[in-house]
Structures are given as C-alpha cells and as structure tokens.
Amino acid sequence: MAASGHPAWGRRATTACRWLFIPVALPVAAVSVIRAVPADWPLPAVQLVAFTPWFAVPAAAALLLAFLGRRRWQQAVAAALLGCQAFWLFPLDVREPAAEAAGARASLVAMSINAELGGADAAGIVALVREERVELLAIEEYTPQLGRRLTTEGLDALLPHRVAHARDGAGGTAIYSRYNLEDAGVLPGTQFTMSVARLNIGPGKLQVVAVHTLAPVGNGLHQWRSDLATVARSDNGSGPLLLAGDFNATFDHREFRALLAGQGAGRTLVDVAGSLGSRLVPTWPMRGYRLPGITLDHLVTSPDIRGSGYSVHRVADTDHAAVVATLHIQGP
Fold first, then answer.
1. Largest pairwise CA distance in the chain
2. Secondary structure of residue 128 in the 3-state scheme
3. How many CA atoms within 13 Å lie on the side-chain side of 280?
4. 10 Å Cβ neighbour count for 73?
C-alpha cells in the first residue's frame, strides 16, 4: 500500500503545485505590467505598484511552484517575473556618490519629517536634531501648535532661522536652519502648502523645497500627479537644489521616476537614499496601518550635491519616519 501510494501522492502534489502557481503568479504579473508600462494607471494600480518590492516574495514562490509542478511554460513565466523583480529591486542606474564628497565646497546635515497632523513628539524631533547634528530641517504637516511645542523643547536654539507656513491639519510645512534663510514663498497650485527657501551656505545659495504631495487616495489621484509635476518644475535647471519631504511616491511610481529624470528643468535629480543603496528602507507606515513598509519620504537633490550617511529614524506619534543625510555641495 505504501509503495503504491507514493507515486499517486507525487502526482497529486505536482498537480496541486500547477494549480497553486496561477493565484500566486497572477498578482506578480499584474504589478509587473503596471510597473513596466508607462501609462496613467487608475488609482488601484497606482496604490498597488507602491508595494512592488514586496512582490519579490510571491515571485520566488511562483518559481518554486513552477519547478515542483514540472511545467516548462510556468517555469519560463516565473523566471521572467522574478527577473523583473530583481531588476527593479537592484536598478543598474544608481550611482554611489559618497566617494566624490571630498571636493565639496560646503556640507550640511539635512532631515525631513512628516509630523502627522502636527501630532509628532516635539521632544523626539528636537532630540534627533541634536543627536544627528542636523543643520537643515523640513517638516511636513506643520501646525501652529507643533511650532510652539518645538520652540518650548528648544529647537529655536539649535536651528534659529525659520521659514514657516503653518496650517491646521495636514496642509502646513516649515523649514528650519542653522544658516540664514530667505523666504521664497510657496509652490503654486498644490493641495498642501510647500514652503520654498534659499539657504545661504558657502559662496552660493541652496534652494530648499519642503515637499508634501497629496496622497493618491480617494479623489486625489489627479492632484497627486499635478503636485509631483509642480515639484519637478521647481527646479530652475541651475544651482544646488534640495527637495525634502513626503512625496507620497516610491521609486516604482512612474511619476516619481519622471521627476528624477528631469521632468522639470531637464537635468536629472538624485534620490539620496537610492544613490547610497538604501532605497528600500521603509519610511511609512511606522504605526496605524497593517501594511508592508514602503519608502514615501525622500531627500532629492540636484546632481551637484552628493549624499552620505543616509539614515531613517522612528519618531513617536507619527506614522512617518524621519530621514537624515549629509549633503555635500559641489562646485568651484
């Protein structure tokens, strides 16, 4: 009985693997098409593609099932899907700029944090600024109440210069700095206020934008795309630039890659985390959502800035992590 039963069990297992392959591989195939085809996809597709890195897991499972099921077409499909996932996880066009930092004419430590409706722990933010020796801080969802709490905790003593456009709820942003700041207004036509400032550092000026795009949820898809396009156009094509904040977009979104490719002024921009091999370190959600972590918060620079020392830090009472990096401004 046992000897005759083994072949039958083996056939059933093989058949089961062939059938299981389909529900495992189909979601991977769907997200792969969305990721690969440059189209204005509808809202569910835009939300799904944000989690592309996590689809490497079912892609590997599909390949295992394909080999156990012994169907060559399934093996070929699974190998192609896993190959796509590997290519997107480890893109070939990411540079390592840290070695070029020695020729910088000025350097500073920059940080960005989404304060989640102004509720983030002010003492935690100030402690992080102190520990990381932050010299430039961009805050999204900056409220008047948060501004007062940060002052009470001593932020003004560490970063005495400020360009702030506080709003109740999610709409405000602020830029704090150790160096003199010039208020350059806000970006036009965005759902949330995006503060713009010029930082006097070294022999020149660094333009800083506190980025906070509307999330692609509900009826916000069109505004999200418009916000990202507006952020891209904030680059005038010359001089050092820092876009710091919550882009509500990952590297797997076509719209974010278009921004990096120079959609605004024609020069390519650099995602600091990506350039230093940390593109997949998640910054959201740090609490409140039972979802896999993804990278929505970025420090994006012009090509004349090199990054080093990128790190991600949890802050209490907000669903976003803070991102920190040292920026080395190149030039004569």
1. 86
2. helix
3. 14
4. 8
**Cα→Cα distances 303→104, 224, 294, 306, Å:** 13, 25, 25, 7
Joined tokens for residue 295: 């990278």
Total H helices, total E strands in the chain = 10, 12
**CA proximity to 253, closest of 218, 279, 276, 278:** 279
Q: Is 208 helix (H, G, I), strand (E, B) or coil?
A: strand
Strand partners, 107: 328
Joined tokens for residue 5: 């039963």
Could you tell me if 166 and 172 are in contact, meaning their C-beta atoms sit under 8 angstroms apart?
Answer: yes
**In terms of DSSP H, where are the helices of the chain?**
2-36, 43-49, 56-69, 72-89, 122-132, 144-152, 155-158, 221-233, 254-260, 272-275
Q: Are the CB atoms for 183 and 197 separated by under 8 Å?
A: yes
Residue 293's CB: how many other CB atoms inside 10 A? 18
∠ CA 30-34-39, rounded to 5°: 145
> Which residue has 């719209």 as its token pair?
255
pTM: 0.93
CA distances from 56 to 19, 35, 62, 78, 89 (A): 20, 13, 10, 11, 8
Question: Angle of helix 56-69 relative to helix 2-36, nearest 10 degrees?
Answer: 140
Instruction: State the pLDDT confidence band at 98, using cuts at 50, 70 and 90.
Output: very low
In sequence order, which ranges of 193-319 are alpha helices (DSSP H)? 221-233, 254-260, 272-275
Strand 161-165 and strand 106-114: the pairing is unpaired
Residue 277 tokens, joined: 């091999």
Note the pLDDT tens digit of each residue in 291-320: 999 999 999 999 999 999 999 999 999 999
For residues 166 and 200, give the distance between their C-alpha atoms in angstroms, rounded to a whole number: 23
